[in-house]
UniProtKB/TrEMBL annotation:
Residues 4-194 form the L-asparaginase N-terminal domain. GO terms for biological process: amino acid metabolic process. The active site is at residues 13, 89. Pfam families: Asparaginase, Asparaginase_C. It comes from Cloacibacterium normanense. GO terms for molecular function: asparaginase activity. Residues 219-318 form the Asparaginase/glutaminase C-terminal domain. InterPro entries: Asp/glu_Ase-like_sf (IPR036152), Asparaginase/glutaminase-like (IPR006034), Asparaginase/glutaminase_AS1 (IPR020827), Asparaginase/glutaminase_AS2 (IPR027475), Asparaginase_C (IPR040919), L-asparaginase_C (IPR027473), L-asparaginase_I (IPR041725), L-asparaginase_N (IPR027474). This is Asparaginase family protein. Substrate binds at residues 58, 89-90. CDD domains: L-asparaginase_I (cd08963). Gene3D superfamilies: 3.40.50.40, L-asparaginase, N-terminal domain.
Length: 341
């Protein structure tokens, strides 16, 4: 039985080709992808293509585009066995994170991929990324999808979408998952780490929750920062503070006063680490206890991309019982590790 996969082409380098008259890159009609990669005809899956009316640079992909992708998956969920989203690399981890929260009780693969070089380049990474992503998007065992989550495939590795980040603008191996093992690896054999795969604990049917709220700000703390400017920003629902190491910040009365003033204004404060690997451990050092005093929320080992997407999804979302802090602390889609503080 041939599995059916829908490719959703949003834009990005993977869909570019060189215009030799101008020597610049331009998007090509992705419906002609079989002409670019004839090897696709050898795959044991049926491929259909939906492309955005105007291919977008990934820097132009945000909440409205996330909703468009989620709606496309919702409309086609029962028509296809898997979904492959082709996307520019710069914001791919944000999109993957957002979709992981918007797609509830997902039981089919949703894979994102892209490339560092255009598909027509001699040394392109686009062909391998695309072909192997299609394998993962159509991989079934005993009539059940092997991957049942939003994942990102790049340079021979399958990663959890809400656990990864782009760390290189030049290497083919551009994405890492610093706090969670890889889900699979492509070599001579296509490997899957089955114990690492996410499975929804709920029995409910698949559904899409398009709720996103942009009343949010990410602020990176640095030595010498003037914290007095923080309360002067327009009132927001959630402030994500990216602090030092495992959760430290300047130890003085003024810092506590400023952060408490923000909390008193009704803003939730989420604390995440500036470190790529590891996470927040409030109480490990004395300079982290301030966050316990003001009632800040620990982001544990969540990535900045995932923290932003999760917060946007949870702010004033009527589809969740409990308050924002209670829900943010939960491991909703495998985005955080179970860490005891």
């Amino acid at each position: 039985m041939k599995r059916k996969v829908l490719i959703i082409y949003t834009g990005g380098t993977i869909g570019m080709e060189k215009d030799y008259e101008t020597n610049s890159l331009r998007a090509f009609d992705f419906n002609h992808i079989f002409n670019k990669i004839p090897e696709m005809n050898l795959l044991e899956c049926e491929v259909s293509v939906h492309q955005f009316s105007e291919p977008l640079d990934s820097s132009d992909v945000g909440p409205e585009e996330w909703k468009e992708i989620a709606q496309l998956i919702e409309e086609n969920y029962h028509l296809f066995d898997g979904f492959l989203i082709l996307h520019g690399t710069d914001t791919m981890a944000y999109t993957a994170s957002a979709l992981s929260f918007m797609l509830k009780n997902l039981r089919k693969p949703v894979i994102l991929t892209g490339s560092q070089l255009p598909i027509g380049d001699l040394r392109t990474d686009a062909k391998e990324n695309l072909l192997t992503s299609l394998y993962y998007a159509s991989l079934y065992q005993n009539d059940e999808a092997v991957v049942q989550e939003v994942a990102l495939y790049f340079e021979y590795k399958l990663l959890r979408g809400n656990r990864c980040l782009k760390y290189s603008a030049e290497n083919f191996d551009a994405f890492i998952s610093p706090n969670y093992p890889i889900l699979g690896e492509s070599g001579v054999h296509l490997k899957v780490e089955e114990t690492m795969l996410y499975r929804t604990p709920h029995q409910e049917d698949f559904s899409v929750d398009l709720h996103l709220n942009d009343s949010i700000l990410l602020w990176r703390i640095f030595p010498g920062i003037n914290l007095e400017s923080l309360p002067q920003i327009p009132k927001i629902k959630v402030l994500i503070l990216q602090v030092f190491g495992s959760g430290t910040i300047f130890s003085n009365k003024k810092t506590e006063e400023v952060l408490q003033k923000i909390r008193n204004n009704g803003t939730e404060i989420v604390v995440i680490s500036q470190c790529v690997s590891g996470g927040i451990s409030i109480g490990k050092y004395n300079n982290s206890n301030i966050f316990k005093k003001i009632g800040a929320i620990s982001g544990h080992d969540i990535t900045a991309e995932s923290a932003l997407a999760k917060a946007m999804h949870l702010i004033d979302n009527p589809n969740y019982s409990g308050d924002f802090a209670e829900n943010f602390k939960k491991n909703l889609r495998g985005e955080i590790s179970e860490i005891e503080e």
